[in-house]
């Protein structure tokens, strides 16, 4: 299969690409990001890294429409005035651009969207942005649109979420604190394995929301 990752050079994108590279399946893997390879070190290989701007027409359009699966990891957690980022510009618009392209140009490509199971109240707008993409994708692509609902995806590579992720796991599974389940901590390696399964048409608990 030809699998394209939007935001493939980021934390989630690199984890997902590693999952596919380490799987038993033989895929053609493509990363679409603003930087391409840039000057980043130790990127997952073998992957074709392309620099694109989803706000303008370009080679990304033919890449996504000839892919079997497109996985959207593009987005921000918190907007920044200094960096001139916003949910609309950096999370919603790129997804809608690709969804529109898939709706018009192909009836085969599936779109896997990395949503969120839950988040603290401070991130209500983050969740609203995710839901806007879900509503749009389901309307435009019907069952070709697949939303995935992880909580905190943690990994030793990022101590800022690794330690909270471990503590959440202990609280949920060790101390059996039920209301914390909605934050759904998941190791990045496990998350990536689930994405590989979903891409292969297998079931995954991450496609269901935990309340």
Automatic annotation (TrEMBL):
Source species, domain of life: Bacteria
Record-linked InterPro entries: NAD(P)-bd_dom_sf (IPR036291)
Protein name: Proton-conducting membrane transporter
Lineage of source species: Bacteria, Bacillati, Bacillota, Bacilli, Lactobacillales
């Amino acid at each position: 299969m030809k699998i394209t990752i939007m935001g493939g050079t980021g934390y989630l994108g690199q984890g997902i690409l590693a999952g596919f590279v380490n799987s038993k399946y033989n895929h053609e893997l493509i990363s679409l990001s603003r930087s391409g390879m840039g000057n980043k070190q130790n990127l997952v290989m073998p992957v074709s890294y392309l620099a694109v701007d989803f706000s303008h027409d370009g080679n990304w359009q033919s890449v996504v429409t000839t892919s079997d699966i497109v996985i959207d990891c593009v987005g921000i957690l918190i907007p920044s005035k200094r960096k001139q980022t916003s949910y609309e510009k950096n999370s919603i618009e790129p997804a809608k651009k690709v969804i529109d392209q898939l709706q018009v140009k192909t009836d085969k490509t599936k779109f896997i969207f990395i949503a969120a199971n839950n988040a603290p109240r401070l991130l209500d707008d983050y969740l609203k942005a995710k839901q806007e993409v879900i509503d749009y994708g389901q309307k435009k692509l019907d069952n070709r649109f697949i939303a995935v609902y992880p909580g905190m995806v943690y990994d030793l590579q990022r101590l800022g979420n690794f330690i909270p992720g471990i503590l959440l796991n202990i609280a949920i599974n060790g101390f059996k604190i039920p209301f914390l389940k909605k934050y759904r901590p998941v190791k990045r390696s496990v998350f990536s394995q689930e994405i590989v399964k979903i891409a292969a048409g297998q079931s995954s608990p991450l496609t269901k929301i935990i309340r």
